[in-house]
Amino acid sequence: MKKKLVTLLIMISCLGMLLANLTIQIKGEAKPQTLKETTFSSLNYVDLEDFSTIFKAISKQDRSDNRLYLNLYDEQFIFLEDSPYYTLKAVSYNMNYPLFRKGERLYLPSIFVTEHLRTHFPAAIQRKGNTFQIAKPIDNRLKTIVLDPGHGGKDPGAIGKKLKANEKDINLAVALKLKNLLEKELGVNVLLTREDDRFVSLYERTRFANEKRADLFISLHSNSSKTMVSRGIETYYLSTAQTSDARAVEALENAVVERFEGGSEAKKKYDDLSFILSDLAQTEHLENSNNLAVSIQQNLIAGTQGIDRGVKQANFYVLRGAFMPSVLIEMGFINNPEEEQLLVNEEYRERLARTIFEGIKRFKFRYDRIRNT
Ligand SMILES: [Zn+2]
Known about the structure:
By secondary structure, the chain is an alpha/beta fold.
């Protein structure tokens, strides 16, 4: 008898799982999408990831206090694990049954989708039976990346000691390979600040990224130092706080302005501009810039077996004024004969592009889905 009851319960819950699906019709799209429901303790849920994919929602979990931040239609909902309550604009709402965690996955009570969302967004979401007509979701996922091959044209960048390789050529070659990978394998839109050997001022590079509303700005460089023994890879993001080592690289990259963009007059322009812009532009992106830098650096080191010089902060002109997470990668020392040999090698350039790609991919996954803090 007991066994029968259990079987019956399993059958009912399976039936529930099979039958209970929500149909989501996004306005302007030809085909409706199916949002699967699943049942826990006879209560209906939708998988947070499935929901996020259809509604283009971005969620961020704070595992330290079990909160879930869910952004959609430019509003932020804050949920608490195992609690039926959530807040929107500082007002609490009750779903009657709780946000549920199973392993790594979070499940939203179906009632949030079927009832609550309609009351919060009456203009955007309408219900007809089990079909929901929704306005085109605001897509905040990472879509556009600007790659910035450092130097170019009259500015060769650093020059190799042994093979006389020009930094500008290495930067461009890796950028083109990276663009290819990002477009093919990640489906993002990739724009280059230069696609051939031409001079582009530092100011124009970030202006281009801002104009194109890029989600990421990645500047590619090859390093140089006074001594030929320096070696390894480092990734920077913008900051005014810095070590003396970082300051040396900063001086090297920033020298472009003095030498190729009209001397100290141009430098003053950048300094004035940075005073106004850099704080505003980069402060809100510091955390993401840091995360992106760490992700790229880790993958670069793992994939190339290069010397890890770490993630650093420096005050680069080229990163100032960029209204998006931005990093600058120094892919190796061109004045170190061994590393110069690598940097001109086609296979090694492939590997650099591939490992930077992996770093961006991992960052994008977290950025688009669940950003753990
Ligand atoms: Zn450079």
